[in-house]
Every structure is written in structure tokens, then in C-alpha cells.
Amino acid sequence: MGWKLISSVPNPWGKVPMFAGDRSAVPQVEAYMSRVVEVVTKRDCTSRRHHYVPQSYLRAWSPDRKRVRVIDIRNGLDKLRGIRDTCVEENFYRVTDASHRPHNQVEAMLGVIDDETAPLLERLRRWAPGDDLQFGDFMSLAVVMALQRNRTPQARRHLASTSDWLGCHRNTAETGRVRRRPHVRR
Q1: DSSP class per residue in 41-55
Q2: What residues pair up with 75 in beta bridges, in sequence order?
């Protein structure tokens, strides 16, 4: 399928090409998506320690680029902790495929996204009034923000409780009876 320009939208950064089909008009996006596809075909990654907050983001808050101040919400105490050991869980993104084989492909794909966005986060940290940002930078930032909100243990707990609630209500609609599920703390 070839490119067909369907419209141009004026914006503060110039014109954004809008194309029919499934291809990007921006070469950087094409290269980025190629890296994602390459990772997907590898099937698994060797990493077992999965950061749900990227280390490149944590470094932005670090006094020495090695440690970051963390607060224990149970007791309110704060301390410096190594970035490598902050916001990390073993096999957090491990999933199973349709054949019930576990793999860490999600971690590998998130690694591509994190590598792509690290320079953007660094540019944003250094940004000053009058500096120019590209339209793609704003789009990348929007994706990073949405993705980050949904890749944490808290989001996982929320999705699990929503799934439990929906399962309970689906059962109610089908049978007219509420099936109580035991509360499991995740």
C-alpha cells in the first residue's frame, strides 16, 4: 500500500502529515517501530529484574546518578537507595503465551521504549523557556506518561480488582445471584 496524503493539520510546529494506512510519515518513528518488531521476534529477554519505573527516569531525581531518595510509606522514613534496587520486581512483566509458555517479551519491548524516551526525558529536564521541542517529542511524552501510569504494581492491583468486580457482576447478570470471591491481597 502506498502513501496517500489525506490532509494537513496546521499547528504550532508546522504541518503534520496525516496518511491513510498503517505507516508513519516520520523516518524516526519507522526506525523505532522496526526496533520494537525486532524485539518481539526475539521471543524472550535475559533480564529478570524488571523496573516498573525506568532507571533513566529515576536518574533524573538522583543526586549522584546512582541512588535516589525513597520514602517507606509504611513508616514515613526516607533513605537513599540504589537505582538498580528501586521500583523493581523480579519477573514483573513475565507473561504466558497461548501455549502457556512463560516469557519476558513485554520487558524487552518496554526496554526499547525506555531507551527511546531516555534522551527525551533528558531534553525535558534541561528545557528552558524559549527552547524548541518537536511535535514528536510531545507525542512521545504523552505515550510515556500514559504507559508509566499503567506499568506499576498499583495499576496491576487496580486491574485485578476491576477484573474481580466485573467477574462478580457478570455472574450476577447471567444467574441472578452474586458470587462472592474471597478477597486476595495482591
Answers
A1: HH---S--EEESS-H
A2: none
Q: Find the helix or strand (DSSP H, E) in which 90 lies.
A: strand 88-90
Residue 54 φ then ψ, to 5°: -55, 140
The one-letter amino acid at 36: V
DSSP per position, 103-145: E-HHHHHHHHHHHHHHHHHHHHHH--TT----HHHHHHHHHHH
Q: Rounded distance, CA 101 to CA 97, Å? A: 5
Instruction: Count CB neighbours of 151 within 10 A.
Output: 19
Work out whether strand 14-19 and strand 5-11 pair parallel, antiparallel, or are unpaired: antiparallel
SS3 assignment, position 40: helix
pLDDT tens track for 118-174: 888 888 888 888 888 877 788 788 888 888 989 999 999 998 898 888 877 665 555
pLDDT digits (tens, 9 = 90+) for 31-88: 777 887 787 777 667 788 999 999 989 998 899 999 999 998 899 999 999 999 999 9
